[in-house]
Each structure stands twice: as structure tokens, then as C-alpha cells.
Amino acid sequence: MDNSSAKRRKLSSGPFVPIGTSSTPAASAFADATEELLLDVQQDYARPFEGVDDILRQFKTTIEALEPQEPAVISDATKKFEKANDIRIPYPNPRPGKDSPYKLAFTRPAQVNVVGSYVTKTMIRTQAAHAIDMIVVMPADLFQDKDFRDLRYFYKRSFYLARICAGLKKELKDAMELSFQYLHGNELLPVLVAQPAKASRKFAIRVIPCAPENLFPTSRLWPISSSVRRNGNNPNEAQAPTPFYNATLKAESLYQPYLRLLTTVGKTCPGFKDACILGRVWLQKRGFGSDLSQGGFGSFEFAVLVALLLSSGGRKGEPLLAKSLGSSQILKGTIQYLANTNFQKKPAVFGTYPSDPDAMRQDGPVLYDAMRNLNILWKMAPWSANLLQQFAKWSLAGLKDNSMDQFDPLFIIKVHDKSQIYDLQANVDLPLATQTFHSQDCHGRTWNFSEKLYHILKKALGERISLISIYMPKADGWAVSAVPSVAQPGKVSVGIIYEPTSAFRRMDLGPEAEQKKEAVKYQEFWGEKSELRRFQDGSIRECIEWAKDSTANIPKQIIRYIVQLHFGLDEQSVSLYGAEANISPADTHYFEAAKESFRTLEHDLRELQDLPLHINQIAGIGPELRYASLRLPTADKYVQPIEVVISFEASGKWTDNLAANQRLKIAFLLKIGQSLEDSKEEIRTHLGLDQAEHDTHNLAFLDVVYDGGFAFRLRVRSDAEEKQLEMQTRNKQLDRHAQTEAATSLAIIRRSYTNLPLHTQTVSSWCTRLPSLSAAIRFTKQWFASHKLASHINEELIELMVLQAFLKPFPWRTPTSAFTGFLRTMHLISRWDWPEEPLVVDHSDSITTDERSAIFARFKESRKSDPRFNRIVLFVADSHDTTGTTYTRNGPSRVVANQMIKLARSVCELVRANGDLKLLFQPSLKHYDVVITLNPKALKSIIREHGASKQSQYKNLLGERSHAVVLPLAETPVNVLLRQLRTQYATVLVFFHGGQDDQMITALWNPEMDQRTRKVEMPTSFRPTENGDTLVVDRTSILAEIARIGGDMIEKIKVKSAT
Amino acid sequence: MAEQPASSRDEFLTLPISIPPLPSFPVPTTHHIYLRRNAKVLTRDDKRSLFLVNVPVDSSEPHLRSLFTSLVGAGKFESVTFESEAKAAKSSIEPAQALRLASHQKKRKREEEEEAQRIKDEVAAEMPSTWTRPLHRSGGSAVVLLADERSVEIVLKAVKKLHKSKQYPVWGEGVGDKAPALGSTWLKAHNKLVYPGNAAMQAVVDAFFTVYNRKEAEAERLARELRNEPDEDGFVIVTRGGRVAPARMDEAEEAKKKMLERQEKRKDETQNFYRWQLREKKKAEQAAFLKGFEEDKNKLRAMREKRRKVQPDT
């Protein structure tokens, strides 16, 4: 939260009650679930750490028994030591000069102690590595007052560590493998890691030398002090503060104070320990850890933060969290604190202010523990602090959303999945070792490079992005006898979240030409890309226009350009990862045109005076009118018209017979058509016949074609029809069959006349509110089409799934690009356990708790009555339709649903491994029994033919119209063919087809249809076998039939070879 | 098959047909139709008809005609009725009123002339077909009407002989242009047939309502008559409506709805009035709360189970 204004501060400093602490059932369920989780993740200390205590004791005695060594000049001591032992002293960079005058010595440690999560018992099972930290407090008499300066302390520390290493090596022989490692990736702090030689034992002991308490006065190590002076040649620069160095040094003497803090808090607050474990899980799922490459905020920092929140933090020093809270409540409170505090904007201070508030000022995030004088976030970079706050915010949003299952997003889902978080990922090779990034502080080269990269990218991308994050490679350990590799070859990876409204803007505006200084700076930053232009408002400015490129969108272009410009890297060293969809958010204007044309139609219809009934509503139901059709709506005459529903005022003029009402509808349509043609010159209307199975179903539609414009398909909604069907379903006198039939008809009618208009409205309004939703829906539809699932899954169902991924993005934020939206949908699908749970999309926030439980009850009921999923497979309810079956009544089947889940899982895996994105849309045809290749030419000829029907017979038919009449396209030929095939072979073949542009129809044989003996009432074609009476499915003759039906439309029928 | 005893009426004979290969599926195939005498003998025609099972999906009258011609020579085949045609029972287009009353009234003998006009009207009111050549369900049946009863015997004999000679008739041979082509021409024609023309459709609808209105008028007249006419047992049928005209069904519905609403309203008014009502309400709320809690517990349990099952993302 922005705490800048006084008023805001007043408001926000009210009683700090963590959300979800009220005793609602949901909250208690959450607490229960966390308890369950705690049991689940609990580390078993007995077995894996068997004998560890003995080893630790052995370490302790060995270290305490080490021989002291008299002071010697650094170069001599180093030489002597390295000669005597096969160990290279792990000095930090730059290594001490040969002529350095200071002396090294060794005396027995002041204390040897085990600290960390092993002692506090806050380890969890799923941790990547279990490390036991043993600190060795170096005696104060080894150091001089000036040792805080110029890495001297660290040289001495390294030597001390090497001595310990030598001692342990002698003692342990081959029982343990020894290696050096940078503590948390901090190049100033090498530590000794001892691992059991046996690979079966998976723990490591880290021996960490540290300073005694209060070794250096606090005043020397304020964040703004400058302690490293040797690097700079420039006297001015020499004064630059070295907050990282100072904090590292400060933290060296704070191991024990923090251990004390954690123990005291743990004693007074019963929920503390469990809260720390929960925090560890929460951080782990988000990829955070104490290591610099993991963001520098791990379980230790979390525990300290919780401890501080439990003891102080309020405006008057009162604790922000009560000690009586339970573990899950403490966690929620902490997350809330993390979400609401921007550590970079304003330092957060716990305890009384240090004498000079300016003393804490620095670039990075600050969370200052005034008691111990340390910035707890000293290891965090600006980007990781930002990311942590975002994670906390997203988690909080999930927690506030009560209807969601709060638990999974918080603890179960692996949040740290870059492809799910970021719209665009970039990998940048570290430049060659010769290129240095000068910095006074001692972060290390990778950090310095990352920081520069961060600032440059942030500046270059500006408003186009809302978040940028950098991941540094993790530093490896090295053998004690080896040299640490100075420049780890590796890649820095960058993750970027777009700001969807401006990410793809083509123009970047710079300063006006008159502002000379700024203009020069701008040119320097952008190089030759920047140019001077005069704009319409008369201003002359620096600006950059980015080209439209189908292979790389504008953010990609910018990253490539700017990284190459500023780091002199070549093309290969920057690799970008993010799908390049041919679907762009800029396609909206096609949809706008369709909507505009629809409004014209609406206007024209409402203008009609001579209709017998008043028009109540004209609703578009085609996906073109909700920004959701895969194919862009065009005024092309070769496409199917856009579907529209007209409803009239309630009237007694409808008859009481269903079939007669259908004819009345036709009469209505004809009347509308006549009136429209009479009133507008440019309108042609054509009454078309629906493929109705029964004449009580809707029989006809009216295609309204605007000359050179869009075409619409009108159907009439009759309230009488609905009433009559409803009556039939309730009529106990009717037989069962008639009743179910009426129920089915009613469901179909409700779907197209009640649900679809509402659905269209909802999706269309969400598409205008969420800029990348439309593209994400279309992207997802494309995926469904390319995997041939499109013909089994309703478009509306796909739209609802994508919408759900957008509205309930927890634990991430709402997707900001089509690709992320698609991946989230895949993630949603891959985790959807459809046999056990319904999908409830509450897009209007209108489903009450009662309704929700009613939906669940209905779901349970349907599962109970249909346990083998023969009728209802997926159960999807939304705000408008709580029956749950409206969009899943006619598919997918169980086979297809499983296939969908399987494919979605493989998409998630592929993207997680940064696999080739082209594979996303490559269907596998291997598992289909039959592959029918269509002839695109023949299909096209069908579409063209009807358009160019200039034959005289049509002139006759249509009477006085003398010129050629172009008929609309009733339905795409492939769909007609497919429907015919499906009707004739319903029992034996399942057909798959991917929508309009797909040139293949594939099919699977129904394995349950195999043999029979009876010849009457055959479900499909059977042939006799050699042995007696059994008949088997005559697959060859069925395929021959299909070949005959398809004729010239089918190029080839391929059958899977029997294996 | 050939060795099956042909004497039994119910036994099917197998009629193999060789299917010429097509470029898209170059596999020579044999299709098997199973046929027997028509078992259901209800009319005179049934005696001279054959019952066929598993007719090819793309069968048409010319196809079967040429098939039978190749079997037993020309002139034996009269017509065919496919399963789908037989089944396509139209829903009644009688007004609801007429349906209700039909059971109470003996059919009036109609003038033959009038009857013919009616049939003509009803044919005119039929929806036009959108297919030049409708397909049939795979494995579907058909009834073939032959010239006379003797032809049935001849056909059955010819089929039996076929198994010895192995000279199977070829599907589609000699059909030529008599059956409309499938493939793209078929779909092209379909797209045209979907749009029969507005004027033509107007005629169809008009014809329909000529029929429908007449029926409605008849039904109304009938209802009026029945109001005062005792039946054989001397009872008078009670019909809806006032003295002037019988009521429409939907009016009755409307009235019922209104009554229910009124009852509902009265119920609302008397709620939360007595103390026991409030007490009951509180109790119900508490129960609902407990139930919700239980449900959450169950959900949690289910979740736990599931997590064991999936264990994702670790």
C-alpha cells in the first residue's frame, strides 16, 4: 500500500487483523488443511539424520582442538599453508596483494555451535537439500579495529576457514567429502561443506566461520558508509557507499543474536514454529530462498520477519501480530504485511529509529531491524523484492476470494513456473570475463551485470511492462584444492510481465527537441534507432517507431536491440521464449466491425413497423459477437452468417401445438425478411432449413445478407414453446420417453435462446475489460482445433475455461498476454479432476453459497446416477446457468475429456522445460485408427459454387429478381459431411476434426462394438465369419461406404496398420 | 450362409455384394446384406416383400432395383421402404384441443373427395427435403416390395445359388445417373436445397395453416357440441371455459400461476410473526451452519485423498 499521504497512513494503521481469522467454516477448514499440510511436510529427524549428532560432536571437538598459529604476513602464510596442505585458501576477489602488510593468525574458536533449521526443527521434507549449519565463532583477538575495511576481515576469515578445513580433513580422512561453497552465493563468504561420502545419506554440514558479537562498532557499518576504498582510482567514487559489504560484515556477528531472538519468540508464541514451516513451504513453492540467485529471502529471513512482527512493528512499537494467533493466521498476517509494504519506496523500520534515518538510505529494499542494526533484506535485489511483494499480493487476492479453494494456490501449486508467471522470458549470456561492471560494492560480477541489465531493460520497456524479474545462475561449490571459477559461464534469465494495454504500442515518444540535455541522453540510450519527428500537434520530438514483425513482437525487438546495443552482445547470446501467435490483440477491430454491423441490423429490425408482434430483444449469440471466434469475422460471402436470436413480446397468438409453432416461426421469419427487403435496398434475405430431426424442433432460420457487408442468421424464440415443453416435462401422464425427449428439447432451447445471449454478453464485456482475454480465448481455441478436439468441445465451454483462468488466476495475477492466458487455461485443465469436481465459473459474482452447494449437490446426484459417465462427463456451471450441463450436454465424451487433460498436461510440461513452442500445435495422428485426408480443392469448389450460382433455375425460383443471387453458406462442407458421418456411424466410430481449416478427419473404432450373433436390429454393419453364427463389425465395408459418401471430397483413407 | 436351412422362415440369408474399389480407398470389399421374408404379415403387400438388414449406407431405390435386376432379372422389383422412412412418424399437428377430444368421439366418415383434398393439402404443407439422396444408418434395415409372392421365392433361390457360383452382384452397377451422385456435387446440391426460396416456403407455411386452421375449427366445433351432448352412458363431458367458448389451455395455466402467487404472498406475510417462528428459524440457521461445516470437513477429506492421488508440482 502506498503510505505516502498522511491520511492514508492514518487509515492503514488501524488494528491489523489478518484476513480469514474470523471463525467462519471456510477459515476453520483452511486451518485444518494447514495442520494436515504440516503433518505432511514434517521432517523425520530420526532416520535420515541418524548419527548426525555424533558427527557434529566430532566436528566440534576437532575444531576446538586445532593448533594455534602465530601471526604471519599474509603472502607468506598463504604460501606456507597451501604448500603444506592440498587446499587452496578461498580468498574473495580480488585476492590479497602480494605486498599486503597485514598478518594472519589462528587461535582456538571462541565458540562452536549448531544453528539454523536443524536446531529449531523447522526443516521440511520437500527441501531440495538438508543442510545443517555449524557456526565457528572466531575469537575477537584475531582482528584489529581497521579490519572492517577493504575485505581484510574476509581474508582473515578465509584463512581461518582453510585452517579448519585442513584440520577436519586430517581427522575425517575419507568419511566425508569436503568442498567449498559461497554461503548463499555471496562471494565474500566461502564456507566449508561436508557431505557423507556415501551417496545414500542426503545431508550436508556447513561449517560457517563468523565474527563474535559487536566485533566492529555499528557506526562503521551503516549502509551508507563506504568501506571498500581500494577499488576506486577516482577519489570521488571512493566515497560511494557499500551497503552490501557492510551488511555482510554486520551479519557475520549476528548469528547468535538472531538465534536468541528466534528461540525467545518460539518460546512465547506457540504458533511460531509451525508458521515458519508454512512460510518455508510458501517460499519454496515460489522459488524463493536465502541464496542470492533465489532472491535472497529464504526461510531464515521469513522467520526473522515473523519474529519481528510478533514483537514490534506498529507505529508505537506495539507488535503487529498477536502471539496468541495460530500458525496459519500468523502466516496470513505475514503475507498481508509483505503485500502491503513496499520496502523499496520507504524503508520499513522495526524498533526505534537509528540516530540518523538517512543512515539507512540505499537503493535496494530495506527492512531495518534497529535492535540489531541490520537490513534484513540486504541480500535482496530490487527485482526480487518487487517479485516477492507481487507474490504476496497474488496470494492475498486468493485468500480474500472465499469461494475459491484457498489452500491449493497457497501451498500446493508450484507457483515458481516461469512460463506461467511471465509473458516473455529472455536468456542473456553473461558477457566475456574481460568485460567488467564496475561497482564499489562486492556483489560479484553476475550481480553487477544483472543489475545493469535490469535498469536498462526497465528503462527501455518502460510502460510496456508491469514487472521485470531477473534470475541469476546459482554458484556451484568447488573442491577444496581447486580455484573457484571466477566467471561462471551461464545465463541470466529475465522474466517479463506485460502491461497489456501498452505492451504492443508501436511508437515510443521521447523528449522534445528543445530539451537539449534530455534529447541527447535519449539518443545515447537508444542509439541510432532514435529519430526526430514532427507530430500532428506541432511538437518536434525524439521518437522511435518499431516495425511490425511477424516473428518477433515489439517487446522482443526492444530487448534484442537494447541488450545488443548496451552490452555489445551478438545475436546468439540473447534468446527469447514466448509464443509468437498469429493472433494479436490488435484484431479487435474486426470484431468491432462485426458488432457495428450487428447494431445496424438491430436498428433496421426495430424500425420495421408492420410486424404482428413487438420485438423484445435482439441478441447475438455467435462467437463473432463476443470477440471469441477463432476466425476473424469478415464481410466475406463465403463464410457462415453470424447467429442472432430475436424474441418477441409474450403473446397468445402462438398455438398450443409445438409443430405448428415451428411453422409460425417460419411465417414470422418470412414476414421479417419481406419487410427488411422492402425497407432496405442493400438487404437480401434467404429462408433456410435447419437439419431438424423432428418437426417439433426448430425448422428454419432466416439469413439476412447486407450487400457487401456481414450476413446474419436469425432464429425466432418463442416463449410459448418453452412453456409447453416445460409443461410436458412436468406432465406425469406422458410416458417416460416423451418426457425425457421434452426435457432434452427444452435444454437445447434454453441453451440457444436463454443462455447463449447472456453468455455472449458476459464474454463480450469481459473481453473489453480484460485486454488479452479475447486473444487468449482464440489462442486456446486454436489449440483445441489443432488437436482435433474442437468438434467435441463446445466453443462456449472453452470460453468459460479461459474466463475462469482469467478470473481466478491465483496464485498468479490475471494473465496479461494471450500466451499466458492459454497456459493458465492449460494449467487449469491439467489440474481439473473432472470425475470428482465440477467447474464453477462465477463470472458475475452472483453465485451465493447456497447456490454453490446446490450445484455441488446436483453434481453429486449426476455422478451417482451416472457413475460411468455415459451421459454427463464434464460438469460446468456458471453464473447464468447452474444446471451445469448446458455446454457439456453434447460432448466431450469420457475418452475426449481424458485426452484433453492428457494433452494439457503435456503442454504444461513442455513449456516448463522451455520446449519448442511449434510442438504445441502439432497433433499426433498416430493413435487414430482411421485418418481421412480431405481434398481441399473439392471442398473449396463447394463453397465457391454456391456463391456463383448464375444458373437460370435460380432466376426462376426467386422470381422477379433478375440478377444473380448469391446464396449464403448454410454450413461449411466439412461440417455437413462430418455430421452425416456421425449420424450414420454413431455407434461404431468416433470422429475427430479440428474445425474449418483442418484437412483431416480422424476416427477411432468403438472397442465395445465387436461381435454379435443376432441379425435383427444391427447397430452397424457386420459381416459373417468363418465359424458359424458370430458376426463381426465389417470395418472394411464401412470405410468403403465412407469413401463412396465422400466421393471426390476424400483424397485418401488411411487405416492404422495392425500392430 | 449357404448351408443354413432355408426352410425356416426366420432364418436370414446372406447376400454378398462386391464393392468396387475407389481411388481414395483402393481395397476391394464385400458387403453383406442379410435378408428374409417379411415376418410381420399384416397387409397383403407384406406377403410379397422381403426384409433386408444391413443395407449399405448409400442405398437408394435405383441401387436396390439394379441389384435385384442383376439377381433375378428386370420386372420383379417394385419399391423399397427404408428404416428411416418408416420410422419418420411425424408428430401430430392436431391442435391440442382436438387431441384431447379425439378419444371421445367416433370418427366421422368423410366424403372421399374431401379426403383427397385433405391429403393434397397435407402434402403441400410438408417441409421440403434438403438432400438429393438421403443416407441411411449403418446396419439399418429396409423392406423391399416385389412384384408378387412368387418373386420372393425366386429371389431367395437366386441368393442361395449365389454362394455356389461366387459371382456376387456389383454394388452400383447399372445405376448410372438414376441415383444422384454423392461427394461434392451432393453437398453443393444440399446447400442449395437448404434455401428453398422464400416464396416456396411461404406456400408451404400457408398450406400448413390451411390444414391446421381447419382442424382447429373442427375441434372447436366438436368441443362445443360435446358440451351439451351426453355420451353413450349418459354423461356429459365437462370442458373448460365459460358459457360462451371453451377456455384455452394457457389461460388456465395463467390462472393457476396467479393463484399460487397469491398463496405464496400470504405465506410470506405470516412469517416472523410469532416467537416460535423466530426460534425455528434460528434453529434452522444453526443446522445449516453445522451442515456447512460438515461439508467443509468432507471436502477437506476429499482434498486430502486427492492430494495423495495426484501429488503435483513437487
UniProtKB/TrEMBL annotation, chain A:
Residues annotated as signal peptide: none
Keywords: Nucleus, Ribonucleoprotein, Ribosome biogenesis, RNA-binding, rRNA processing
Gene Ontology biological process terms from the UniProt entry: rRNA processing; tRNA export from nucleus
Membrane-spanning parts: none
One GO MF term: RNA binding
One of the Pfam families matching this protein, by short name: Nrap_D3
Location of the Nrap protein domain: 132-266, 272-413, 421-567, 582-768, 771-914, 925-1053
Localization annotation: Nucleus, Nucleolus
Entry GO terms, CC: CURI complex; small-subunit processome; UTP-C complex
Family in the record: Belongs to the NRAP family.
Record protein name field: U3 small nucleolar RNA-associated protein 22
Organism: Apiospora kogelbergensis
Origin organism lineage: Eukaryota, Fungi, Dikarya, Ascomycota, Pezizomycotina
From TrEMBL, chain B:
CDD domains: dRRM_Rrp7p, RRP7_Rrp7p
Annotated keywords: Coiled coil
Domain Rrp7 RRM-like N-terminal: 12-189
Gene Ontology biological process terms from the UniProt entry: ribosomal small subunit assembly; rRNA processing
Signal peptide segment: none
InterPro entries named among the record's database cross-references: RRM_Rrp7, RRP7, RRP7_C
Listed Pfam families: RRM_Rrp7, RRP7
UniProt entry tagged with the keyword Coiled coil: yes
The protein's name in its UniProt record: Ribosomal RNA-processing protein 7
Organism, scientific name: Apiospora kogelbergensis
